[in-house]
Structures are given as C-alpha cells and as structure tokens.
Amino acid sequence: MCVASATFAVWTAAWLSGRAASDDVLDSLAVWGERHEVVAADTVADALQLPAWPQPPAPPAQLLATLRKCGARTATLALPAPGDVRGLGGPGPLVDAALDSGEATLFADIGIGLVPHTVAEGVLRWTVYPIPRNAPVEHVGISEAEHELTEAVRTSAATLAALDVARDRADAHDALKAHLSAIPRSAWPSGMPGRSLRVLQRATEIAGILELANADDPGGALSAGSAAQRAEALRPIAGAVRNARSAAVNEAVRVLTAPAEKYPR
Q1: What range does the domain containing 225 cover?
Q2: pTM for this one?
Q3: Do 77 and 28 fall into the same domain?
Q4: Longest Cα–Cα distance in the chain
Q5: Are 45 and 63 a contacting pair, CB within 8 Å?
Q6: For a designed S-S bond to 20, which of 14, 149, 188, 198 qualifies (C-beta 3.0 to 4.6 A apart)?
Q7: Are residues 91 and 159 in the same domain?
Q8: 25-74 per-position pLDDT tens digit
Q9: Of 51, 14, 43, which Cα lies nearest the Cα of 131?
Q10: Do 173 and 92 belong together in one domain?
Q11: pLDDT at 151
C-alpha cells in the first residue's frame, strides 16, 4: 500500500479508461477513511461547480462527475517533501498543501490537483487546487526509480556499517512483520501491472525498515554526532522510497489508460 492519493490516482485512471466502474473508485477509498468529502479552492470552486470551504463539502461521487465533465483522461501521483516538489506542476497554491500532506493527485490535462487531509477520525477531506493546464509534470521512470531504490539501500547500509552506528535487533523480523500488517491495504484494479505491484511492495517493506530504524532510540549511535550521521545516511532511502512509489503508481496509470475494453461507468 502507498497513500490515499495513490489509490485515487490508479482507480480513477482505470475508471476514466473504462476498466472500472465509478462505484469501484468510491469503494477503493474506504480503506483510507469511513467518509470522504470534497471542497475546492476559491479560485476554481465556481468553474468546477464544487463547494469552497466553509460551505458544506461535496461527496466524492460529485468529484468524479466533475472529472468526467471536464474531460480528464489520466492522473499523476506526487509525493513531495521539503526541497523536492517535483511532480506538482510548478509553483502555485497546491504546493504548500501538498507539502503539508506529503501527497497529491494531479489531473494536469484539466488543470487541477487534489490534496487529502484527515480532518476528523475516519474523515478524509480532498481539496481541489488549480494547476497550469497541461503543465509538464516531472516524474521518475519506474526503471530508474527501482535502480535508485536498490542503490540507496546498498549505499546507506555501507555508510552505516562504516559509521559503526547500526545495531541488530533480535526482534527486527517480528517488529517489521507487525508494522507491515498494520498498514492499510486495498485491492488494485484488474490490469494493474505486475512490475508496479512489485516495486510498491518493495518500497513498502523498505519504508517499514526505515521507520523502525528511525524509531530505534538512538539506533546504536554512540553520540549525538553519530546519530546525526546515521540520520543523514538514511535520508536517501526515504527519497528513493518516495520516487519508487510515485513511479510505480504513474506506470500503472500509464498502463491502465491504454485502450481497453469498456466496462460500465
């Protein structure tokens, strides 16, 4: 599993290309919250006929109708972080919101991007922002991202060993298994490419290891300075995980939006 924006990007792409029904898209979001609601930034609310906060939010089915009406054909996942806002279509109000959330789904062909935020227990609010229509959306290819992930793990492991700040945990396997089992999971649409699934699974496992390593106090570091070096050594892995996840999802969207037999909408 990745993030809510990944689920929405993949299932919406499948629906837009006729590979899934609209109810499939809505059902796929249930793993991320019992209720989903949609609002729009003031600058696009009227044009999209979506409510702007603090008006009562719209249901996600209305968002799907808007995407269809506006002629959306594909989607892109962005997983930004401070210092890395690739994939957000350039400067604009979306950037700050996406950085705060850590994720966004872009529909560059119709000039909008969506950012989810948890606003209450079990409630996820999707806010629609404008982006330049058909703006180039930079992202890493899946082959490059997979290679980067492998290299980041190898380099970081070597650096940690050289620093002598890595520490084996007797319960590491059980801790990772418990961590991964707690991650929300949902089914992907029919036609989801196997390579995307493999890269997503590997990224999830490495992210789990990274999270457990960061939670270890202080991970076997002998001093504050060593702890800082350790954090610096692990940082490339986090970036590689983000790139791998976005690349896997965007490759899946590319495959799913290829011509296919139409299914009910």
Answers
A1: 142-245
A2: 0.83
A3: yes
A4: 61
A5: no
A6: 14
A7: no
A8: 999 999 999 999 999 999 999 999 999 989 999 999 999 999 999 999 99
A9: 43
A10: no
A11: 85
Cβ pair 57, 128 in contact under 8 A: no
Q: What contacts 24+ positions apart, CB below 8 Å, involve 250-253?
A: 250/9, 250/76, 250/77, 250/139, 250/142, 251/141, 251/142, 251/193, 251/195, 251/196, 252/10, 252/13, 252/188, 252/192, 252/193, 252/196, 253/9, 253/10, 253/13, 253/74, 253/75, 253/76, 253/77
Residue for token digits 């609010």? 125
Regarding whether 132 and 9 lie in a shared domain, the answer is yes
Q: Which of 75, 109, 139 is the last residue of a domain?
A: 139
Which among 90, 120, 139 is the end of a domain? 139
Contact status, residue 47 vs residue 69, Cβ threshold 8 Å: no
Q: Are residues 95 and 211 in the same domain?
A: no
Residue type, 140: V
- The number of folded domains in the chain is 2
Report which DSSP code applies to 177. Answer: H
